[in-house]
Amino acid sequence: MASKVFKNIIIGLVLVSILGMAAIIYILMNQDDPNRELTIDEQIEYSYMTESVNIDLADNRYAQLQFNIITNNEDAKAEVEKRMFQFKNILIKQTVEMESSVLQNDLSGFENRLKDEMNVLMEEGEITDIYLISKIVQ
């Protein structure tokens, strides 16, 4: 009788151990890598498109710009929507001394500066990219 109880205890421990190992392997295999590149579907899901924004440039010209802001998660997208007034403020500060030639020739640098300044404010995630999707300079 004692050997039967001992045998059942050993079988129970083995089963619990196997289930525990399976659970650990499952968790490790299904963790998202936070440094991975977002798929195009995720980029679309986590993107926020701004309204057109009019700005004055230093050479007495003006520009109308529209951006698509890509974040790394849904919470960050919601935060960007709430921080649009700050984005517009940063945009105005970045362009107040900018001439139209800079806006015509260094778009990548301009987008990166906006992204870096906005990421300083972000608390719920980060902005991975800012794309200028519409630009009219007059």
How many β strands by DSSP?
A: 4
What structural class do the secondary elements suggest? Answer: alpha+beta
Main sheet record: 4 strands, antiparallel
Order of helices and strands: HHEEEHHHHE
Sequence stretches where pLDDT stays below 50 over 5 or more residues: none
Features:
4 strands; 138 residues; alpha+beta; 4-stranded antiparallel beta sheet; rod-shaped
Structure, described:
The chain is of the alpha+beta class. 55% of the residues lie in helices and 20% in strands. The protein has 6 helices and 4 strands; from the N terminus they run ααβββααααβ. Strands 1, 2, 3 and 4 form a 4-stranded antiparallel beta sheet that branches. Helix 4 packs across helix 6. It starts with a helix and ends with a strand.
In short:
With 138 residues, the protein is α+β, with helices and mostly antiparallel strands. The protein has helices at residues 2-29, 40-45, 74-82, 84-95, 100-105, 107-121; strands spanning 47-49, 53-56, 62-71, 127-137.
Give the topology.
Elements: H1 2-29, H2 40-45, E1 47-49, E2 53-56, E3 62-71, H3 74-82, H4 84-95, H5 100-105, H6 107-121, E4 127-137
Antiparallel strand pairs: 1-3, 2-3, 3-4
